[in-house]
Specification:
Blueprint (H helix, E strand, L loop, with lengths): L2 E4 L2 E5 L24 E8 L8 E2 L8 E4 L5 E9 L2 E11 L4 E7 L6 H26 L5 E3 L3 E5 L2 E6 L6 H11 L3 E5 L4 E5 L2 E5 L14 E12 L4 E4 L2 H8 L10 H17 L2 E6 L3 H11 L1
Parallel strand pairs: 2-3, 3-8, 11-15, 15-17
Antiparallel strand pairs: 1-2, 4-5, 5-6, 6-7, 7-8, 9-13, 10-11, 10-12, 13-14, 14-15, 16-17
Length: 296
């Protein structure tokens, strides 16, 4: 059975699962046997029926979430063509967020081009849904996944976060250009865990379109909220400002009150333990130096 470890969470994957569905985990291979925190089993089906339960999905979301009756767990699924067509991938998650059955639709497309498209989408969505389950399972390990670009420099981690398109990846790249030995832990979805009162950032294999990530970690020294501006400036935020600006960048389980309470406790620990700065900036070396002066 293939075994992996992401942000300290041990993942076992059923041997019958096609390797192409989890090839993104290859750098997170676990050589030593350890008990699983999260187990995936696999099956195919000619037809995947719509699960029964309460729909918690945003209509604009690429995947759907359904809460099982009697608090028995959750389903996550995607359809073949956006919001229409038959279900392509279904994840059946137990209430403990520990055991997951991954069901993929059998593919019988009429032509080679369409079959290639469906297979590509199946691989992408299956791995994406595995990442969604991972970030909820991580709550049990005192962890959250953040929409950010995280770098490691001199055993310190810095997270740049902002809405998409603001320049998170640009700031990470600028650090690599102007400082020595800078590594990108994850360019889109790093994990953050509370470990014995320390806040640790981990790379994860789910890293957006750039696919830049590494199996490494570092102590979080600063969170940098980015805003584009004509001139560079930086200031430390007070706790209230930090919560308002930083919270929208955390992946939070709004559909489950118990998990939401735990996520908020973890989030509050992060923002009360680590300085949060607002960096109004241009994409240049001066922006790098402003952050450097805060954390050196």
């Amino acid at each position: 059975m293939p075994k992996y470890q992401v942000a300290g969470l041990v993942i076992h994957i059923d041997e019958s699962t096609p390797a192409e569905l989890f090839e993104g985990l290859v750098d997170y291979n676990l050589s030593e046997p350890q008990a699983a925190d999260l187990c995936f089993t696999y099956q195919t089906s000619e037809q995947i029926d719509l699960p029964q339960g309460e729909n918690f999905s945003d209509e604009s979301s690429g995947y759907k979430c359904i809460k099982k009756p009697n608090a028995a767990g959750f389903y996550f699924y995607t359809r073949k063509y956006g919001s229409v067509g038959e279900i392509l991938v279904l994840l059946d998650v137990d209430a403990a967020w520990q055991n997951v059955r991954l069901t993929c639709a059998a593919i019988h497309e009429k032509n080679e081009l369409e079959e290639s498209y469906v297979r590509m989408k199946l691989r992408h969505t299956a791995f994406t849904l595995m990442g969604i389950v991972f970030r909820h399972a991580l709550l049990k390990q005192q962890g959250l996944v953040i929409h950010a670009s995280a770098i490691k420099w001199q055993d310190k981690a810095i997270m740049f976060t902002a809405p998409s398109g603001t320049g998170k990846s640009t700031q990470s790249r600028l650090w690599q250009e102007h400082k020595e030995n800078v590594l990108v832990l994850n360019d889109d979805n790093p994990a953050v865990r509370i470990m014995e009162d320390h806040v640790i950032v981990y790379g994860t294999p789910w890293s957006g379109s750039s696919n830049i990530n590494m199996n490494d970690s570092a102590l979080l020294s600063a969170v940098i909220i980015l805003e584009q501006a004509a001139e560079n400036s930086i200031c430390r935020m007070d706790l209230r400002e930090a919560i308002i600006q930083f919270m929208p960048r955390a992946f939070l389980p709004f559909f489950d009150q118990e998990h939401m309470n735990e996520a908020m406790r973890i989030f509050e620990k992060i923002v009360s333990s680590v300085p949060v700065y607002l960096l109004r900036c241009r994409p240049d070396q001066e922006a790098v130096e402003l952050v450097y002066q805060c954390i050196k």
